[in-house]
């Protein structure tokens, strides 16, 4: 059994499967290859510039002050290490599936299933929060135009106030409370994802162009109202205050890996996918840093813990008309995030279905639209129904853990790939930098610089109730020691090692309760794997036949 769990899939088999689609058991050929560098970059920006720049950036600025810009740089560097590793995989394994497929090549089937299950947190469940966020922006926009939906059609059961419950119509005594805008946008976006990548590409490109123009306009106008005294002190709550916003900031970045799920729809995935991911990451980081300086410069950071910080700061300086522009941009930006994630999730399920880990219907390719039709519809249902009834915006931290976990496995997977002296084709190749000396030097440097905080986190003086929250950090320290040892003895490549350690550290800044929930999520996934996927695995059955 253990051999089956860790059996790896060959690159040749993966590429062969990618050329076969299924419609009721019959091959239908490959998907439309229409995406180029500009399209992939636009999709990356569409996924990253969303709710984060319009809402969660306010919470992060409240905790970190003007120094939140440093947090965006730290997060971008962390994502940058991961993006380079994704790019290496995308150039070597140019098929759909993202981290799931990459893990199947390097770690084996069990790890692939675990990462595929974790990615459901990032895509499907995370999108519920995005849909609900979109609903809030849309309702604010309607209100600004003098239009208002009935409160019971723009709320959720678990967040409804007594006033909303009283106003709602009732059936058999049960109040009818629906978030209709959230459900509507999921249906619309699912339709775009269903009818084809060409239509999705055009929609994403248009939305990205519009929101970048608005964001640049906001930055330029905002800098005229900056009061530099608001930037002092630069780090009012210390470095720990900056890191308090890590989950909010990282949640804004998690979408760039969705670009890798479109590998089979790229004209030249080995060349274009890496460029698209890296370009989008750089552009988004610059925009986030500029926005953070505008926000913390226009008003004191202590007033930024609001749901709509961009609109708030312009209201404060008397430019209320800009708030309406921001509301329009927020609606467009959040919808583009939904679109990219609704494209990404079905393609991961499609890859898992090809391997037999999910029912074959999930790999069904529509004969006309060349999209994973059944998987796209199921994704729409899984996102749309909860968004209609529930308020799941609290999944930000949980989604970030799932994404960081995926990043760690991708970085670790690169270390297991056979090193190539020179690429045989014109594709991206991750530069090899010997980490034998650099990794131990960086670890020692950080241990010295942050020795007081390190001693405090590893101290048992506060008792179990205090120390248990440091368990993730304790695991990080163990992992760091192990990776430092292997970097020195095995001369591991620097970039993947730094990617693994930086992602693991960001995970330690997310609350312990989210680790517990994430662990439960993984246990549910393992139950499904051993109940269905293990016995239906094509790789396992091919060996046994």
TrEMBL record:
Recall the GO molecular function terms of this protein's record: amino acid transmembrane transporter activity
Which InterPro entries does its entry note?
Answer: AA/rel_permease1, CAT_C
Q: How does it sit in the membrane?
A: Multi-pass membrane protein
Which keywords accompany this UniProt record? Answer: Membrane, Transmembrane, Transmembrane helix, Transport
Where in or outside the cell it occurs: the entry states: Membrane
CC annotations in GO: membrane
> Per UniProt, what is one Pfam family of this protein?
AA_permease_2
Q: Which organism is it from?
A: Chitinophaga silvatica
Q: What is its main location?
A: membrane
User: Taking every annotated instance into account, which residue ranges of this chain make up the domain Cationic amino acid transporter C-terminal?
Assistant: 494-537
Q: Which residues form the signal peptide?
A: none
What is the protein name given in its UniProt record? Answer: Amino acid permease
Bilayer-spanning residue ranges: 40-58, 70-89, 110-134, 171-194, 206-226, 238-256, 277-301, 321-344, 374-394, 400-418, 430-450, 470-488, 495-512, 518-535
